[in-house]
Amino acid sequence: MGDFDGVHLGHRALIAQAKKMARQDGRKLVVMTFEPQPREYFGMDQGRLTPLRAKARLLAELGVDALFALRFDDALAAYMLANRYDTPQVSRWTWLLGVGQAYVVLDRSEDALPWLQRSIAVTPGTGRTHFLLAAAYQRLGRFDEARAAVAAGMKLRPGTTAANVSLPKKNASATYLERGKEINDLLIAAGMPRGDAQASATQ
């Protein structure tokens, strides 16, 4: 599951591993992507490397049996569906994170918590998940837990500030920028260094 834009070497390695597992189990190899891509859906499009038809052709050449292209506004349901699959636990963290991030952006922090916590339990070494968890805790008034989550993320990503983890500004929709600024403010309140976040938010 992912954008698979460009079908680069990392994508190819992942698909090769999934293909091996699928063939060993006698199953079909299926790739799930989104159309439009998430950054296009949120108004942040900076151009694609591969249009959908070209992407489908490249994936077929790699042995993919089926490609599902879902609308990104169905992403939350898709992540939840993916969570039901019989997939190795180590592979689950990305869609657990995806559900959690969607809930944080939708201002549904209580719903976000279990998904982000499960993602961290699978892959504890990613700072981004800790920061999203911190934003959710801060919004819910669980300030000590928010500070602890920021500290955990900062340990994994030293030098992080609210400025260098903020959403891209170019071509972003006003609504998405507003929600991104709110998340930045929550992280600052939870102890993340500001950097030049205030200046960049107004640019």
DSSP helix count? 10
Query: How do the strands of the widest beta sheet line up side by side?
Result: 1-2
Give the domain tally: 2
Name the CATH homologous superfamily of the largest domain: HUPs
How would the blueprint of this fold be written?
Elements: H1 9-25, E1 30-34, H2 38-41, H3 52-61, E2 66-70, H4 75-82, H5 93-105, H6 109-122, H7 127-139, H8 143-156, H9 174-189, H10 197-201
Summarize the structure.
The chain has two domains: 1-87, Rossmann fold (3-Layer(aba) Sandwich); 109-193, Serine Threonine Protein Phosphatase 5, Tetratricopeptide repeat, CATH 1.25.40. The chain is 56% helix and 5% strand.
What does this protein look like?
The chain is built from ten helices and two strands, in the order αβααβααααααα. It is mainly alpha-helical and 203 residues long. The chain folds into two domains: 1-87, HUPs (Rossmann fold, 3-Layer(aba) Sandwich), CATH 3.40.50.620; 109-193, Alpha Horseshoe (Serine Threonine Protein Phosphatase 5, Tetratricopeptide repeat). A two-stranded parallel sheet has the order 1-2. Residues 197-203 have low confidence and may be disordered.
Question: What descriptors fit this protein?
Answer:
mainly alpha; Rossmann fold; Serine Threonine Protein Phosphatase 5, Tetratricopeptide repeat; 2 domains; 2 strands
